[in-house]
Design goal:
heterodimer, A: mainly alpha, 2 domains, 72% helix, 0% strand, elongated, B: mainly alpha
């Protein structure tokens, strides 16, 4: 799928983009690095047999699944505290301001310095955190540059068209937010040219650690690629490589289950036989009449 | 993560085993002497044969008791008269009778009455006894 050169480009961009993605989603640099490292580890240790020449998209798929799980765990662990906090009445004055309320954003100029200013970077992160998860994901994947559109759609488990639609919506929302802050972009091209370079970048130490983790996983992959021993590993590999079929299979299973329930419901006997029995015994039809061998014949006369 | 998976699997297995054991538990089969006064009164036509019934059959008959109590005196009399015959039927015959009764209920009242009359006349023609084998 990818040439050696393309693979090298991807290898430099991929961990950084994943780290950016995790940082915006989790808001914590060490946690972001840990998710990236865990995804690399999982990919090479559990799904080594599933990888052919599609490492980047398989990596990103696992990474997104892990990220979603991590966010869910974080939100769940914070839920009791948030519920308790909601019980305490607070005045508007006590509410901490949103970063976007405090940050000052300048209008984009021609010098190309706009993305490098810290306030703009912080404002972009705050604005991205306001977006729905799927739209943020689409923006980061399609404009991040590490994956092409097909691979990005595969990683998200949706169609290219759906991904493009989400990304357009995300971009329009970001443009509206920045316009409200006084930084109106002339068009989408200018917005992308300003916003994408303004995404947070790992410092040199973090970048080196990410690159090392990526290289190590590639090396491990080369030495450990083998056929899966267990059927469950083969199934997991298939599910990883076929996100769309996985959804179809799930839908088919659900339909089959619903069909089974309907068929069973139709063929099942009366829910409470004693209710039927008592009406039968107390009714005007004698048991002999009901068991008459000519009953069906008489019914059709 | 694998720990959580293992715990989920263990919990699922435990639930399956509990459900299977609950499902597999044989139904209680009280003897005639173990029935309370109300049950004995309602099921009196079956007193001599009660102890030879299968546990499932006993449970089916016991399930009728509270429902019989709610019937009108005429209906109670009908049930009492038919209970012995009902208890002597095989499970297949009871299922067939239930199926036909449901078919009968799906007919309009007029057609239902016509069908019962037709069956009665046919039976009288085949077996000309004074009562025609009504009960």
């Amino acid at each position: 799928m990818a040439s050696r050169k393309e693979m090298d480009i991807v290898a430099t961009r991929l961990p950084t983009q994943a780290w950016q993605h995790a940082l915006i989603a989790l808001g914590d640099a060490p946690a972001a690095a840990a998710v990236v490292a865990r995804a690399l580890d999982l990919l090479t240790s559990r799904y080594a047999h599933a990888i052919k020449d599609d490492f980047p998209r398989l990596f990103y798929r696992i990474f997104l699944q892990l990220l979603r799980r991590r966010q869910f765990c974080r939100d769940t662990s914070r839920l009791p505290a948030r519920l308790l906090a909601a019980l305490i009445p607070r005045s508007e004055a006590q509410r901490p301001p949103h970063p976007l309320e405090l940050l000052t954003v300048a209008a984009p100029g021609d010098d190309g310095d706009w993305p490098r200013q810290g306030a703009h970077r912080a404002a972009l992160v705050a604005a991205l955190q306001l977006l729905p998860r799927t739209e943020r994901q689409a923006f980061l994947l399609l404009d991040g540059g590490a994956l092409d559109a097909a691979d990005a759609a595969f990683a998200c488990g949706c169609s290219r068209r759906a991904l493009q639609r989400r990304r357009n919506r995300a971009l329009r929302t970001l443009m509206a937010i920045f316009a409200a802050k006084g930084a109106a972009f002339a068009d989408e091209a200018q917005a992308i040219a300003c916003l994408v370079p303004a995404l947070p970048v790992p410092d040199s130490g973090q970048a080196a650690a990410l690159a090392a983790a990526f290289d190590a996983s590639l090396a491990r992959l080369a030495s450990r690629r083998r056929k899966p021993q267990k059927a469950s590993a083969r199934v997991a590999g298939w599910a990883l490589r076929h996100p769309h079929q996985q959804g179809g299979l799930l839908l088919a299973l659900l339909l089959a289950l619903a069909g089974g329930v309907i068929v069973l419901g139709r063929s099942a006997p009366a829910p409470d036989p004693s209710a039927t029995d008592i009406h039968l015994l107390a009714g005007d039809a004698a048991i002999d009449q009901l068991l008459d061998p000519h009953f069906d014949e008489a019914r059709h006369e | 993560m694998s720990d959580w998976r293992r715990r989920y699997r263990l919990a699922a297995c435990a639930m399956l085993i509990a459900a299977a054991s609950a499902h597999a538990r044989p139904p209680e089969a009280p003897d005639w002497e173990q029935l309370d006064a109300q049950q004995q009164r309602v099921l009196a036509p079956l007193s001599t044969e009660w102890n030879r019934f299968s546990p499932v059959h006993k449970q089916q008959l016991l399930a009728l008791v509270p429902r019989i109590e709610q019937l009108s005196p005429v209906e109670k009399q009908r049930v009492s008269a038919r209970l012995r015959q009902w208890a002597d039927l095989s499970e297949e015959q009871r299922a067939e009778a239930r199926r036909r009764w449901l078919q009968l209920q799906s007919l309009p009242a007029g057609q239902r009455q016509q069908l019962l009359t037709r069956l009665k006349m046919r039976r009288q023609a085949l077996n000309p006894t004074p009562n025609g084998g009504q009960e």
